[in-house]
Every structure is written in structure tokens, then in C-alpha cells.
């Protein structure tokens, strides 16, 4: 795997950056296009590195508020997308189906991983997240309805016995398409070069804390209010995540790193939530 050309420019190795860019670019691109891309990378890195490169800079400089806000929302969606509930119940499904379900689940996850990487740059980030969040919400809400009828109403679920397996299959298709994969891509795209290391570290730490909280309260909530409540909570988070994507996330498909940063810092992209200003000021 080649090093990032942005990193090579950051450490003042222009020749290596050019060679890597040629390797990563399409064979039909001419010398002028490569030079233009290299110049754009140089300008982007130079502008980013004019600012400080510390965690304090990331947390206090208004330039990074919008990126932090967006990525925090994406990380919450990533952790609370229902994977914890699905994984916990999947063992029961597999145990009751004599390994047939486990074969189905495994066969689905393998090609979906490749499909997600293909659609990422062909369909775009926002459309993928719309599809992924809505698909996950449908599967989780359906699972919740099944357990509500079975556990709370004590009704006959024989006529809808297909819902648990179908819901998990839908979730395993939809989650990798966006909810469980795109937050990692966006971390690399939205944080500027000077605070990327601090930003990724902070988001990873935040994700670990969120995962601990979800794991800690999953079983108590399930015991107190039923498994269907857990599924509905996660389904609701996915629906909110879809609205969050529509309202705040910029489309980064086909854009250079410099173009993404310019869009994040544009005056017309200010966001105010209560007393919190997410307006980036250059």
C-alpha cells in the first residue's frame, strides 16, 4: 500500500508524492493533470499546516467545530446502529436453525463488503447513508415488532416467524453499506492535515466510550422494558441519523481534500444549534 501523497508533501518529499500520485491516478491522465493535482495537494497542506497541530487546537479553534460536530454524530450513529442487539440475538437465531442461518449470514456479509467499497465512489456518501440508515431502521423496527408481539402481547408469532431471520439479513446488508463503514472514511476526509491525528484519536476514544455505554446498558434495558424496546431505540437512532446526514453532512464524493475543507469553511455553511455556533471562520 502506498503512502498518502498528502503525508509526503507534509514531510517535504515532493518527488515521492508525485510518484505515489501517478501510481494512484488513472492511466489516461496526462502530466498536466498530475501537476495540477500535486499543486492542489501542496496548497491544501500548506494552508492546513499554518495552524497549530495539537488536541487543544482541535477543541478550541472554531475552524474545526463543524467537522467535530458532524463526526461526533456519525460516531454515535455508528455505535448505536443496532449491531449490539443484532449480534446478541443472532446466536439464538443460529442455535435454533441448525446452522442454516449462520451460512446465510456469512454468505451475505462477504459480498456486501465489496459492494460497499464499489458504491462508495459511484453512488456517493450521502445516498449510501440514506439507504443504510433507513434499511437498518426498517430491520430493527421489524425485529422490535416481532418481539413485542411475542414477549409483551404473548401472541401467536408462527405466521411471522420469518421476520427475525429476514430482519437480520436486511441489517447485515444495509449496515456495511454506510452506517458501519463510512464514519471511518469521513474521519479521513473532514479533518484537516494539521489536526487529523488528534481528530482521529479523539473520535476513536469517543467511540470506545460509546461502545462501553451501549454494552453496559443493553442488557439492563432489555430486562426492564423488553428486547423490543432496545430494537426500537436503535431503530430510532438510525432514523435520526438519516435526518442528521441530510441536514449536516456535506457530500464529499469526487472532491479533493482541499475542496472538502473549503466547503466546510464556507461562510454559507454556518450552523447554529441553540447557543452553539458551528460557523467556521477562516
From TrEMBL:
Subcellular localization, as worded in the UniProt entry: Membrane
UniProt-recorded name of the protein: Sugar transporter
Major facilitator superfamily (MFS) profile domain segment(s): 1-253
Keywords: Membrane, Sugar transport, Transmembrane, Transmembrane helix, Transport
Domain of life: Eukaryota
Protein's membrane topology: Multi-pass membrane protein
Organism expressing this protein natively: Popillia japonica (Japanese beetle)
UniProt keyword Translocase, yes or no: no
Amino acid at each position: 500500500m502506498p503512502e498518502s501523497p498528502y503525508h509526503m508533501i507534509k514531510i517535504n518529499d515532493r518527488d515521492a508524492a508525485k510518484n505515489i500520485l501517478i501510481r494512484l491516478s488513472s492511466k489516461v491522465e496526462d502530466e498536466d493533470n498530475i501537476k495540477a493535482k500535486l499543486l492542489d495537494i501542496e496548497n491544501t497542506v500548506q494552508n492546513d499546516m499554518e495552524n497549530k497541530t495539537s488536541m487543544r487546537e482541535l477543541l478550541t479553534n472554531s475552524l474545526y467545530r463543524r467537522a467535530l460536530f458532524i463526526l461526533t454524530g456519525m460516531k454515535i450513529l455508528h455505535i448505536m446502529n443496532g449491531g449490539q442487539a443484532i449480534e446478541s440475538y443472532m446466536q439464538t437465531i443460529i442455535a435454533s436453525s441448525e446452522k442454516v442461518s449462520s451460512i446465510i449470514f456469512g454468505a451475505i456479509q462477504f459480498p456486501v463488503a465489496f459492494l460497499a467499497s464499489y458504491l462508495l465512489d459511484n453512488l456517493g456518501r450521502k445516498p449510501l447513508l440514506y439507504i443504510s440508515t433507513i434499511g437498518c431502521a426498517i430491520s430493527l423496527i421489524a425485529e422490535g415488532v416481532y418481539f413485542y408481539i411475542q414477549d409483551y402481547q404473548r401472541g401467536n408469532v408462527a405466521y411471522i416467524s420469518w421476520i427475525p431471520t429476514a430482519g437480520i439479513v436486511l441489517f447485515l446488508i444495509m449496515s456495511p453499506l454506510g452506517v458501519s463503514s463510512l464514519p471511518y472514511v469521513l474521519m479521513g476526509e473532514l479533518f484537516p492535515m494539521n489536526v487529523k491525528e488528534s481528530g482521529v484519536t479523539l473520535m476513536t476514544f469517543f467511540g470506545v466510550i460509546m461502545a462501553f455505554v451501549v454494552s453496559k446498558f443493553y442488557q439492563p434495558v432489555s430486562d426492564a422494558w423488553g428486547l423490543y424496546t432496545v430494537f426500537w431505540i436503535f431503530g430510532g437512532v438510525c432514523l435520526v441519523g438519516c435526518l442528521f446526514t441530510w441536514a449536516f453532512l456535506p457530500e464529499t464524493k469526487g472532491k479533493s481534500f482541499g475542496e472538502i475543507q473549503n466547503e466546510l469553511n464556507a461562510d454559507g455553511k454556518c450552523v447554529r444549534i441553540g447557543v452553539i455556533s458551528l460557523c467556521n471562520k477562516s
